[in-house]
């Protein structure tokens, strides 16, 4: 007789659960891209670092020792706060087909450890509903404090941008630690984020109550199930959500609080299921009680339907023994503000979040849709000479844009807007207004063209990037 305990299949490991996410259907309209692991290092940066006595090389993530040195350098760069996060996990990096780059100082006592790091991989960026562009994602930019302000970060970042542009990526992106580092390379803050604090006892709920009205139910779930549900809901809905990235499995592991060795063990999760039994939303949260005033912190709330959104916010705001609810990386225009009776119970702070850098003006402008017909000539300057030039954007009545790079004279009647690639990157999604940047002296454009551009580039839905990387 077989012992049922010994014949039972072993419980799946977290790595297995993560790998299983790969089997989920890909987001609709996902473009293809060359994996970063196949892209050669930039020779210009390699030469400039070599002339300073430094070596610029890729780190093989399968080499445990080299990977460990790389991770330690990243952790030191971020003052030990980063732990083994996101790309910091070897399996995640290998799944992403990304590349790690280190700068090494052969004269240093520990020359096997990099003095600078950068990680990159490809993902999709949603420019407009149904319009996804391949994006060169950048993370883990660090330079050891012993080697700062010698131009190492500049060499690495410029090297990544040249590599990506040379491989056909039309845009690069990163979420930043400081807002003053990346503008000089042509990045612009394209999608901002809000942090909400809601005093829930004061708020008063006036929104829909789908659970009480019998249209669905709320249930607690394990963090592994939350990870899978978040990944599935995201894959299913992301193409329609401008500002988001299509992402990778490690994002959902982190969002569900499953990262090893983190305080995130306190994460709890609840799902919303509709009347047909389909999971339509998940909220991952934790509860902290610092001084007798318990705070429910929402780490991630993802809803595929209006009912799921209302039910999950209602659950969070009416949780017992809680005095306030916080949520990060929310969009500027959220229905929850209109679901509470006292809007003054909600305070929000805004900050820059996603910075993008256009690498191919013609490709990204042709990749999104527009809200008004018309045409404009952009004269774009680029500090790295990757995509500067004159581009005629013509939008037809259906909102489709076509772009012509001009080498000869522009049409006599073309209205010209002059701007840097950093400003165009900031304006691409419609998160910033053209009239505002003109008033700030950041672009040169007349009132008629900014009025049209503000309508044409307006986002089809509130912009949000719900993750950091
Ligand atoms: C930010 C960091 C990567 C810069 O590295 P670095 O090698 O010293 O930078 P460089 O010498 O190449 O400087 C390039 C330019 O950036 C500027 N710069 C560097 N660090 C900056 C900072 N923290 N804020 C604003 N500007 C900065 C330099 O003044 C220089 O300007 P210029 O070339 O226009 O004159 C490094 O200080 C670091 O590792 N910081 C901690 C980790 C971190 O915050 N990483 C960024 C993650 S988004």
Describe the fold and architecture.
With 469 residues, the protein is α+β, with helices and mostly antiparallel strands. It folds into 3 domains: 31-175, Gcn5-related N-acetyltransferase (GNAT) (Aminopeptidase), CATH 3.40.630.30; 194-354, Gcn5-related N-acetyltransferase (GNAT) (Aminopeptidase, 3-Layer(aba) Sandwich), CATH 3.40.630; 360-456, Nonspecific Lipid-transfer Protein, Chain A (2-Layer Sandwich). The chain has 14 helices and 16 strands. The protein has helices at 4-7, 14-21, 43-50, 64-77, 90-96, 152-167, 200-203, 223-237, 249-255, 306-317, 361-367, 421-427, 434-439, 447-456; strands at residues 55-59, 99-104, 116-128, 131-143, 171-175, 188-199, 216-221, 268-274, 279-288, 295-303, 324-330, 346-358, 374-381, 389-395, 401-406, 416-420. The strands form 2 sheets. Strands 1-2-3-4-5-12-6-11-10-9-8-7 form a 12-stranded mixed beta sheet, sandwiched between helices. Strands 15-14-13-16 form a 4-stranded mixed beta sheet. β9 (279-288) and β10 form a beta hairpin. α3 runs antiparallel to α6. The longest helix has 16 residues, at 152-167. Mean pLDDT is 92; it is low at 1-7. It binds coenzyme A. Coenzyme A binds at residues 77-78, 141-143, 148-154, 176-178, 180-181, 184.
């Amino acid at each position: 007789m077989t012992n049922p305990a010994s014949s039972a299949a072993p419980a799946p490991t977290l790595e297995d659960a993560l790998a299983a996410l790969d089997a989920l259907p890909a987001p609709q309209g996902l473009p293809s891209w060359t994996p970063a692991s196949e892209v050669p290092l930039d020779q210009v940066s390699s030469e400039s670092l070599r002339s300073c006595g430094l070596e610029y090389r890729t780190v093989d993530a399968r080499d445990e020792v080299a990977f460990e040195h790389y991770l330690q350098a990243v952790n030191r760069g971020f003052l030990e706060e980063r732990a083994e996060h996101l790309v910091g996990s070897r399996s995640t990096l290998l799944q992403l087909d990304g590349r790690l780059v280190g700068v090494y100082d052969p004269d240093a006592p520990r020359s096997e450890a990099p003095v600078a790091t950068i990680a990159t991989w490809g993902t999709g960026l949603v420019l407009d509903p149904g319009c996804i562009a391949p994006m060169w994602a950048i993370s883990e930019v660090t330079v050891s404090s012993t080697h700062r302000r010698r131009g190492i970060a500049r060499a690495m970042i410029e090297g990544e941008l040249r590599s990506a542009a040379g491989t056909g990526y039309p845009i690069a992106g990163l979420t930043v630690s400081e807002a003053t580092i990346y503008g000089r390379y042509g990045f612009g803050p394209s999608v901002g984020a809000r942090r909400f604090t809601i005093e829930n006892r004061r708020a008063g709920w006036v929104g829909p109550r789908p659970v009480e009205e019998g249209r669905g139910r709320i249930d607690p779930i394990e963090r592994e199930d939350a990870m899978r549900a978040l990944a599935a809901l995201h894959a299913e809905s992301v193409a329609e959500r401008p500002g988001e990235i299509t992402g990778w499995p490690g994002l959902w592991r982190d969002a569900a609080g499953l990262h090893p060795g983190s305080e995130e063990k306190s994460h709890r999760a609840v799902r919303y299921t509709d009347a047909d039994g389909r999971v339509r939303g998940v909220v991952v949260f934790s509860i902290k009680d610092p001084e007798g005033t318990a705070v429910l912190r929402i780490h991630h709330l993802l809803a595929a339907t209006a009912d799921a959104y209302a039910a999950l916010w209602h659950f969070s705001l009416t949780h017992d023994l809680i005095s306030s609810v916080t949520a990060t990386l929310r969009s500027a225009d959220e229905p929850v503000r209109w679901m509470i009776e006292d809007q003054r119970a909600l305070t929000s702070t805004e900050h820059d979040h996603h910075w993008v850098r256009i690498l191919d003006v013609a490709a990204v402008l042709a990749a999104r849709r527009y809200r008004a017909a018309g045409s404009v000539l952009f004269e774009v300057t680029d500090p790295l000479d990757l995509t500067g030039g004159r581009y005629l954007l013509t939008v037809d009545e259906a909102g489709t844009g076509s772009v012509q790079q001009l080498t000869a004279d522009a049409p006599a009647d073309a209205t010209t807007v002059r701007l840097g690639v950093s400003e165009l990157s900031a304006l691409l999604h419609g998160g910033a207004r053209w009239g505002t940047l003109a008033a700030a002296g950041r672009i040169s454009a007349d009132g008629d063209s900014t009025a049209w551009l503000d309508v044409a580039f307006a986002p089809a839905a509130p912009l949000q990037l719900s993750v950091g990387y």
